[in-house]
């Protein structure tokens, strides 16, 4: 909890002692009204203010800062926890502030000045130069540009280039602590010169804390996939095929360059003795270098493996001089700059090619008889570090730096209910979760089993639970695609344990989801645009569908109601992990991803404004899982829960009131506080089990309203709805596997799902003023049964079970020990009948069509139809 010290608010920050001198970041949640201006706060080390970059990520409705992201270098002599304090910095405390960054930008150029270099960006084509010191000495200038080569190895022409700048303020002196320069380029097709839908985004990040420059390069194919027949295979007609994407850098008058292939390997130096010497050396990672490097996870559109070399090779003048499994190269080049690529081997194929005067950093290297394929709506991001420091090993520290966190109790101020402050670190469920790091089937080992590496795969989790029916020893390829939100689970475990391995898993997965699993296009059907792709279809190999669920090679009828084919759908939308990732890292791509997914799932349930669409809705008005657009009622299922969660996540990161009001509308048009729950037929488990997921989202809404002390009619409508369903659960719910005969696949995934019931029942106990102890007792029953049964299970380390535990553990203890903010009102028994139960069906249908006809647009109707007819 935030403490008060002589009138100042302060928050302790917990750091791993091994982090000393590394650049670290942490996010701090602040109570409403505590901090309005950044300059009224400071970061203390050993009692004295230190340089610190600060950026407000979200604000409360009154304008005060809700979440603040801090970046800083940890002092080597740190003797105690850092303290973030809300207090004015005294003038005397800023005397030792380091020289800050500065920049000048006009229509044609942006120049960033650092005490150790000067960086100049040309707006016309995104090319740049780095000069040692702050003067343009021709002998000390490195020039670079990003080059995209098409399928015929021709250099892509830049048709447009836009530059934007953002900076992070220093708490110590108010100057610029960090600066990002973003370059967005669109490419023209070489054949006819027309503008394509292929774009790149380069983000240069500068900081006053060190001299290194980080560059993130993202390539994007904004075309929609054709996905004929509902299959989403590689080789799609709208995929983008290209030969190479490289960062080309040139220097002058250099005589040597050195490199290291692995972190503990010796440095190799190459000397040029004559002007005609080239000394061309390349380091290329062809495959993962792992035991399962030939896994079918890597097949291309021909369903064949596109490589034949295990690991990496170092070539000199075309001859292999050394080889190995997994390269993490660091290069000292042109007597001026050091370079390293993050996740060099993990995101293969990658390469670095060096001569004394030129270096090619290939995010996608040119390969004989093979083209790279970027699917429609897909992105790929690579990161490279450039340093003018004459000590290249210093880059090791920057690329491996990690995050600080707060003590668990501090997060109680947050609108994201993490349920961490009362967590038992030694419970059986926590021990089961810890298998994710410490068992023989931990999440890192799962990567090795599938060889979940390469630029498209790295970061995702192996869906090993789908291998249960697999009969032989061959590798069964199945991707998890963030089902049930392991990003949220990993981050929650990181907060609980301060174990950086959990953050690593979350970081890798979040970046994968943001690039690969989200459908980044606006040219497909609106119910697909910006959506999240399903996990690989149940019990089937991925084949050439990569991370897009459905392949033409998969069979039909694999399980009950299986048809094959499809696309992104609202039943698979998970945003809370991405929202938490944004809040903990400040990564703007995560915020954009949350908003994109929210916009998409809103369309899935609310639709557009065409009459043709309304005709389809009339046909499907009784289909399970779809909103009835004539009564206005939403389905009681996980899709509606996902919709609510997405709206809540958007509200958390933007504080836009409209998102919360939309949540209230959805809740009030899904359930009623006085309804007869027996009419929901919840005993039909296969068809209705996910009602608990909806109730969990309803609890999350109550948690947010409670933090904000908004106990209005909307709050009590939802609260009473929770109590209504909880009473039915108290009398009728049981452990799913106690009745295995009614389940199609009675396995321990059902046991893990039972933990959701504990969440709902313990929340009902709390929001019912803690009066009905039988609710808490039954919640504890479910929690104890889940832990006891899974402890004895042979499948307890399966991915889906592990993720369900990470996502759903904690609420029972939280609601048991949490202090009531006030005495809640008594439950009402006379709520007005729901709007979806009023009026005749004929009247509703007529009104809906009249409303659409009044807003009729022929072009919209034609566009809607064209997208569905292909």
From TrEMBL:
Residues 21-78 form the PcRGLX/YetA-like N-terminal RIFT barrel domain. It comes from the Bacteria. InterPro entries: 6-hairpin_glycosidase_sf, PcRGLX/YetA-like, PcRGLX_1st. This is PcRGLX/YetA-like N-terminal RIFT barrel domain-containing protein.
């Amino acid at each position: 909890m935030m403490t008060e010290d002589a009138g100042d608010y302060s928050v302790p920050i917990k750091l791993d002692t091994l982090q000393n001198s590394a650049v670290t970041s942490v996010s701090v949640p602040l109570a409403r009204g505590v901090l309005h201006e950044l300059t009224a706060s400071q970061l203390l080390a050993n009692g004295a203010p230190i340089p610190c970059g600060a950026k407000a990520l979200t604000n409360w409705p009154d304008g005060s800062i809700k979440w603040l992201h801090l970046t800083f270098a940890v002092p080597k002599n740190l003797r105690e926890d850092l303290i973030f304090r809300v207090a004015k910095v005294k003038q005397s405390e800023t005397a030792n502030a380091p020289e800050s960054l500065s920049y000048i930008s006009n229509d044609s150029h942006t120049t960033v000045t650092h005490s150790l270099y000067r960086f100049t960006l040309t707006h016309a084509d995104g090319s740049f130069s780095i000069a040692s010191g702050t003067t343009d000495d021709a002998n000390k200038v490195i020039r670079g540009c990003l080059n995209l080569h098409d399928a015929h190895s021709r250099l892509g022409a830049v048709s447009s280039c836009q530059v934007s700048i953002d900076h992070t303020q220093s708490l110590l002196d108010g100057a610029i602590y960090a600066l990002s320069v973003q370059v967005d380029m669109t490419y023209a097709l070489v054949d006819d010169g027309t503008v394509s839908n292929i774009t790149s985004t380069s983000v240069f990040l500068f900081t006053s804390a060190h001299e290194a420059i980080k560059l993130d390069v993202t390539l994007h194919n904004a075309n929609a996939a054709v996905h004929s027949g509902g299959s989403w295979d590689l080789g799609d007609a709208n995929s983008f095929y290209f030969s190479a994407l490289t960062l080309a850098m040139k220097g002058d008058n250099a005589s040597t360059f050195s490199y290291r292939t692995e972190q503990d390997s010796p440095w190799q130096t190459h000397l040029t003795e004559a002007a005609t010497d080239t000394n061309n050396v390349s380091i290329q990672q062809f495959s993962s270098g792992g035991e399962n490097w030939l896994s079918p996870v890597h097949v291309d559109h021909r369903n064949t493996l596109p490589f034949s070399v295990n690991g990496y090779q170092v070539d000199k003048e075309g001859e292999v001089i050394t080889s190995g499994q997994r390269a993490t190269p660091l290069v000292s080049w042109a007597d001026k700059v050091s370079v390293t690529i993050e996740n060099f081997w993990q995101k293969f194929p990658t390469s670095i090619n060096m001569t004394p005067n030129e270096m090619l950093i290939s995010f996608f290297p040119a390969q004989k008889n093979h083209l790279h394929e970027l699917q429609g709506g897909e992105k790929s991001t690579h990161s490279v570090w450039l340093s003018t420091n004459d000590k290249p090993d210093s880059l090791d520290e920057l690329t491996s730096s990690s995050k600080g966190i707060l003590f668990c109790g501090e997060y109680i101020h947050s609108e994201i209910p993490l349920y961490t402050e009362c967590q038992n670190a030694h419970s059986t469920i926590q021990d089961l979760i810890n298998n994710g790091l410490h068992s023989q089937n931990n999440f890192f080992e799962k990567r090795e089993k599938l060889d979940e590496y390469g630029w498209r795969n790295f970061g995702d989790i192996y869906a090993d639970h789908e291998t249960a029916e697999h009969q032989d020893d061959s590798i069964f390829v199945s991707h998890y695609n963030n089902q049930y939100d392991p990003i949220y689970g990993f981050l929650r475990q990181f907060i609980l344990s301060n174990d950086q391995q959990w953050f690593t898993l979350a970081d890798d997965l979040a970046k994968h989801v943001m690039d690969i699993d989200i459908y980044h296009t606006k040219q497909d059907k609106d119910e697909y645009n910006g959506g999240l792709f399903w996990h690989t279809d149940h019990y089937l190999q991925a084949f050439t569908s990569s991370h897009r669920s459905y392949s033409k090679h998969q069979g039909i009828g694999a399980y009950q109601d299986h048809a094959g084919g499809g696309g992104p759908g609202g039943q698979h939308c998970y945003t809370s992990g991405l929202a938490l990732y944004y809040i903990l890292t400040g990564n703007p791509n995560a915020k954009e991803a949350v908003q994109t997914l929210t916009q998409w799932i809103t369309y899935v349930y609310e639709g557009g404004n065409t009459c043709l669409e309304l005709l389809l809705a009339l046909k499907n008005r009784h289909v399970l899982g779809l909103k009835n657009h004539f009564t206005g009622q939403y389905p009681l299922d996980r899709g509606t829960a996902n919709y609510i969660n997405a709206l809540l996540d958007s509200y958390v990161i933007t504080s836009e009131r409209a998102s919360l009001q939309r949540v209230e509308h959805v809740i009030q048009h899904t359930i009623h506080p006085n309804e007869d729950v027996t009419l929901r037929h919840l005993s039909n488990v296969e068809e209705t089990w996910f009602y608990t997921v909806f109730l969990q989202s309803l609890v999350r809404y109550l948690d947010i309203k409670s933090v904000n002390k908004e106990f209005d009619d909307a709050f009590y409508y939802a609260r009473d709805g929770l109590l209504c369903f909880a009473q039915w659960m108290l009398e009728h719910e049981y452990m799913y596997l106690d009745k295995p005969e009614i389940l199609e696949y009675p396995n321990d995934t059902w046991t893990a799902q039972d933990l959701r019931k504990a969440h709902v029942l313990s929340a009902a106990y709390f929001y019912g003023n803690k009066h009905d102890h039988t609710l808490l007792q039954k919640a504890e029953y479910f929690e104890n049964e889940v832990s006891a049964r899974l402890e004895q299970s042979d499948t307890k380390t399966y991915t889906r079970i592990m993720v369900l535990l990470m996502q759903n553990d904690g609420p029972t203890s939280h609601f048991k020990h949490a202090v009531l903010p006030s005495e809640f009102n008594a439950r009402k028994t006379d709520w007005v009948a729901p709007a979806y139960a009023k009026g005749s069906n004929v009247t509703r249908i007529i009104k809906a069509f009249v409303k659409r006809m009044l807003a009729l647009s022929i072009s919209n109707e034609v566009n809607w139809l064209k997208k569905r007819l292909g």
